[in-house]
Design goal:
The structure holds 2 protein chains of 2 kinds. Chain A is of the alpha+beta class. Chain A is 22% helix and 28% strand. Chain A has a single domain, classed as Beta-grasp domain (Ubiquitin-like (UB roll)), CATH 3.10.20.30. Chain A is built from 2 helices and 5 strands, in the order E-H-E-H-E-E-E. Chain A has a 5-stranded mixed sheet. In chain A, strand 3 and strand 4 form a beta hairpin. Chain A is globular and about 35 Å long. Chain B is an alpha+beta fold. Chain B has a single domain, classed as Aldehyde Oxidoreductase, domain 3, CATH 3.90.1170. In chain B, 28% of the residues lie in helices and 39% in strands. Chain B is elongated. The chains are: A alpha+beta, B alpha+beta. Chains A and B meet through helix 1 of A and strand 5, helix 2, helix 3 and strand 9 of B.
């Protein structure tokens, strides 16, 4: 499954684009997506943490991704 | 209530039961205290509590030149709406207004205004604190501090 992933803040700096394309094989969970991300961009492991949002909602690692989902990497937020 | 739509980029607004209301906005230009006051004011209110965030001139002794704010706007609006809805539902609150800036801000400028109106002051104070504390934990907005000799995404690293 091809995922189009939105990136913000330091996540965009790490991947050097605001829309990252990743190909997910096998289990299409957030856990799998995160493993793939870290393999490709080890700098994600240095962050305090990061979350994945699917269709603008925070989702946990077991969440299953579907074709066409809007996926976003949410690095530590710092609004206010 | 009619909003001045000409100068805002994203708006979330919800008219709720008992004529209570929330107003959530992300704006690319100056936030306006008077506008927030007008959105929060209502005849049932006995007190209106403001939290106004301002850009500080230093971080850990390093001089801050400016801050750059960016948002995942769709989700930022929905997360701020959740905060407002929670307050309206669970506490004695009758208006919640949250306006957040994006873009470049210099020292003294206002990145966020939160206004809570309530029949009694205690609930308004507590709700205002809850709203800013929760916003800082959950709302997908990021700020980059620009120093005289470098820049850093706030809170990104341990």
């Amino acid at each position: 499954m091809k995922c189009n992933i939105l990136t913000f803040g330091i996540a965009r700096d790490i991947v050097k684009t605001s829309q990252l394309e990743l190909n997910l094989e096998g289990e299409q969970t957030i856990r799998n997506l995160k493993e793939k991300l870290v393999n490709q961009f080890p700098e994600f492991e240095k962050l305090r943490h990061y979350s994945i949002a699917v269709n603008a909602e925070y989702r946990l690692d077991d969440f299953i991704l579907n074709e066409g989902d809007e996926i976003a990497i949410i690095p530590p937020v710092s609004g206010g | 209530m009619k909003l001045p739509s000409s100068h805002l980029s994203v708006v979330g607004e919800k008219r709720m039961k008992n004529n209570t209301m929330t107003n959530i906005q992300i704006k690319a230009n100056d936030l306006n205290l008077d506008e927030c006051m007008q959105l929060a004011a209502n005849d049932e209110a006995g007190g209106i509590c403001f939290f106004v965030g301002t850009v500080r001139n230093q971080t850990k002794g390093k001089k801050v030149v400016s801050l750059q704010f960016e948002a995942y706007e769709k989700m930022a609006i929905s997360e701020m709406q959740k905060i407002a809805d929670h307050l309206i539902k669970d506490k004695s609150i009758n208006r919640v207004v949250i306006h957040h800036r994006v873009g470049d801000l210099s020292v003294g400028e206002i990145p966020v205004i939160i206004v809570v109106a309530a029949p009694h002051r205690k609930a308004a104070f507590e709700a205002c604190q809850y709203a800013i504390d929760t916003l800082k934990e959950t709302v997908p907005i990021w700020k980059k501090e620009i120093f005289e000799n470098g820049e850093v995404w706030v809170s990104a690293h341990p």
